[in-house]
Amino acid sequence: MRSLEDQLAAYAAYHRDARNIVTHFIGIPLIVVSLLALLSRPAWGAGWLPFSPACAVVIVSALYYLRLNLRLGAMMLALLLLCLGVGAWVASLSTAAWLSVGIGGFVIGWLFQFVGHFWEGRKPAFMDDVTGLIIGPLFVLAEACFLAGGLCELQRNIEMRAGKVRNGRA
C-alpha cells in the first residue's frame, strides 16, 4: 500500500486550483452522506445499533484510513460516523424522501466535482486511479487541516511533489 503522502500527493496533482478545492469541500461531503444514506437501507438489527451496507462501507473505509495514518484516520472515523448517522436518519424517512435526498445529494455532489475540474482544466483523479474515490474524503480533511494551520510538514511535502495551490488555471 502506498503511503499517506504518496496518495495525497498523487490526488493533489489533480487539485491545484483553489476553486476546485472549494468545490470539493462541498461536493465530497454531499457524495459521502448521500451514498451512506442510500446504503443505509436495508438495516438489520433493532434498537440503537442497526447494521446496514453503509456500516460495512464505513468500517472498511475507516480501517483503510487508520492504516494510512492513525491521527487522520481517527478524524475520518469520527466524520464517517457523523455521516453515517445523517445517512441513517435520511434512510428513516419515507421511501420517496430517502431516494430524493440520497439521489439528489449524490448528483449535486458530483456536479460540484465536475465544475471544479472544469475550472482545474483536468479530469478527476479517479479516472486514472480508482483509489481516488477513497482518497477524496481524506484529501478534503487534509486540506481543512492545512487551512487551520495543521499538518504543515505534510502540506510542504505534498506541495513539493504536486505544486502549490493557485488561484485560477495555470
How far from one another are the termini? 31 Å
- Indicate the mean pLDDT: 93
What is the element string, with H for helices and E for strands?
Answer: HHHHHHH
| Structural category | mainly alpha
Molecular shape: globular
Rg, alpha carbons: 17 Å
Task: Classify the beta-strand content into a percent band.
Answer: under 5%
Q: Could you please describe the fold and organization of this structure?
A:
The chain is mainly alpha-helical. It has one domain. It contains 7 helices and no strands. It has helices at residues 4-12, 18-38, 53-68, 70-91, 95-120, 132-147, 152-162. Helix 3 runs antiparallel to helix 4 (70-91). The two termini are 31 Å apart. The mean pLDDT is 93. Pfam families: Mpo1-like. Keywords: Membrane, Transmembrane, Transmembrane helix. The chain crosses the membrane at residues 21-39, 45-65, 97-118, 130-151. InterPro entries: Mpo1-like. It comes from Serratia marcescens.
From the structure above, extract its key features:
170 residues, single chain, mainly alpha, Mpo1-like, globular, 7 helices, transmembrane helix, 0% strand, transmembrane, Membrane protein YGL010W
Question: What's the gist of this structure?
Answer:
The mean pLDDT is 93. The protein is an all-alpha fold and 170 residues long. The relative contact order is 0.23.
SSE topology:
Elements: H1 4-12, H2 18-38, H3 53-68, H4 70-91, H5 95-120, H6 132-147, H7 152-162
Pfam families: Mpo1-like (PF06127)
Protein name: Membrane protein YGL010W
Keywords: Membrane, Transmembrane, Transmembrane helix
